[in-house]
Amino acid sequence: MQKLIAVEEAKALMNEALDWSLWGWLTEKRRLRVTADQAWEALDEAEKKVRAGWSDDLRKAWHECEAEAALEANPRAKRQYEKAREEAKDVNPEVKLAVKKLKEADVEAYALHMQAEETFDEADRRMSTSMAREGARQAIDAWEVREKFLRKMEALGRKFTL
Predict the structure, then answer these.
(1) In this structure, how many other beta carbons lie within 10 angstroms of the beta carbon of residue 116?
(2) Domain boundaries, the chain
(3) Alpha-carbon distance 58 to 80, whole Å?
């Protein structure tokens, strides 16, 4: 995976923000927010491009994993899960296992993203530079984990699309 310019710019700005005073955080938080949002959008677009190159079996297995996660969160999603499971019934179990592991990495990356967002929100409410710095570190970590996830997606696509 090529480095994404928006993500690299956001990381650089977050690293710079680690040294900001309260005034710096107050005056630059809008620019920081816009830059962070652009980074997340770039990562989402990269993910869509990678997934577009996947085989039907990979897509079916991914859809089944997503439906299973939806079922765990909401028992009313049973029909959706059953449909996805039926569509993926002929998918190689090795593909399903690899996709399940990939889905775990996706969940981890999402959790880190949400943790950084919550830390920034709390830092903003408290006007806490130390919390804002922690949020910046968390955001950088979340972007790096998301990039790692995308590289795994690409590798999985290469392995099972040939």
Answers:
(1) 22
(2) 5-53+95-161
(3) 18
